[in-house]
Amino acid sequence: MEVKVSANTKLKKKKINGKFLDLLYKVITVIIIIGIWQFSAEKIGSSLLLPMPMDVFKGFITCITDPEIVKNVLITLQRVLKGFMYAMLFGLPLGLIMGFSSSCEKLFSPLVDSARQVPIMAWVPLTIVWFGIGDGPTIFLIAFAGVFPIILNTIQGVRSISKDYYNAAKSMGASSFTIFTNVMLSAALPDILTGARLAISTGWMSVI
């Protein structure tokens, strides 16, 4: 019993030390970057080319305390979230269908592969023609950029599910809906979340 307690204590100490070392490495990295930044800014001597770290920090404080800037940031955040929701609305069902059915994958794959090769900026003129000036083009571009990571990661998640899970659920009398919710969605969820995370980051980069 004492041996188990001692082993657990050592394991907890090791985890704490590991977390502390990770934090220490991050702090040291930040200090080194700021030091190089400060040295380079002093060497260049031009706030236009490379401002001092303290000047940037003061500008950041000014930005987050300016009501007009905060308002614009919230508007941008709203657009990104709307685009992300549309990407999930279209990408998730399509990815599930393409991952589960090889026939659907062959049917939709050429369209998906062709559309995702087009640079996002090439869609800007068309979106302005389609949606006019306003939130429409921006939301469309965010959704368009984010839908493909969701589709591809969902397909990968569904295809990685072992057929044994389906067979086991069927042998226990599970309905198609139960298999869909408790087997397919549950097993593919990590990949779906990965696609969603990539879609959010891609959406931020697509904000115009």
How would you explain this protein's 3D organization?
With 208 residues, the protein is mostly helical. It contains eight helices and no strands. Helix 7 (163-171) runs antiparallel to helix 8. The longest helix has 43 residues, at 2-44. The protein is flat and about 70 Å long. The chain starts with a helix and ends with a helix. The model is unreliable at 1-5 (pLDDT under 50).
SSE map:
Layout: H1 2-44, H2 53-65, H3 67-100, H4 102-116, H5 124-131, H6 135-159, H7 163-171, H8 176-205
Transmembrane segments: 20-40, 83-102, 139-158, 179-200
Keywords: Cell membrane, Membrane, Transmembrane, Transmembrane helix, Transport
Main location: membrane
